[in-house]
Amino acid sequence: MSTIEQTQTVPAGTWELDPVHSKAAFSVKHSGIATFRGSFKEVTGRLEDGVLTGGVKVASVDVPVEQLIGHLQSPDFFDAERNPEITFTSTDLRQDGDQLVINGDLTMRGVTKPLEAVGSLAGPTQYLDGKDRIALEVTTVVDRTEFGINWNAPLPGGGQALGNDVTLTVELQLVKAEA
To answer: How many separate domains does the chain show?
Structure first.
């Protein structure tokens, strides 16, 4: 895809996160049969000149089991005290037909790994407040053990309590920054 085509599909300029309409979530196989889901309440994001950056505050992890929140912040999982944020910086952001493809570096627990996420880009459109907005929705799968998240427990009938593959889903609404 040429640079001209990219600038027509990926908006130029600076776009700031609308935190009310943005979410970062994760899901992982649990007990070998079900999917466990969680998210983060504090999300950051910015698209500037074709580079997407963002992250989440680990302390804002949100799951349906209150007692699990502390365990997820412990060294067994995200290790929030030593690694308070999970961050991402894109190295390439492009449209491939109708699909948005984002390559970049994810840093979790102090470990940085490349990843590719795919999804969609919508907009720009003008909202009720008169400001231009875009929406990005992307998904990727990472192996949690590559980031040092190794906790697991054997199940009585065989297998492990948690799968290693974690699906990350990010939905961002970004507002055009005032010049």
So the answer is: 1
Q: What is the CATH number of the domain that holds 51?
A: 2.40.128.110
* Band of residue 4 on the pLDDT scale cut at 50, 70, 90: very low
**Residue-range definition of the domain harbouring residue 77:** 3-176
d(CA 27, CA 130): 35
Residue type, 70: G
Q: Using alpha carbons, select from 15, 170, 143, 27 the residue that is nearest to residue 87.
A: 170
User: Under a CB-based contact definition with an 8 Å cutoff, are residues 16 and 46 in contact?
Assistant: yes
Can you give the C-alpha Rg of the chain in angstroms?
18
* Backbone angles phi and psi of 153, in degrees to 5: -145, 135
Q: How far apart are CA 177 and CA 2, in angstroms?
A: 26
Q: pTM of the entire structure?
A: 0.90
- Residue entry with tokens 């349906």: 64
* 3-class DSSP assignment, residue 75: coil
Best-predicted range by mean pLDDT among 29-33, 56-60, 130-134? 56-60
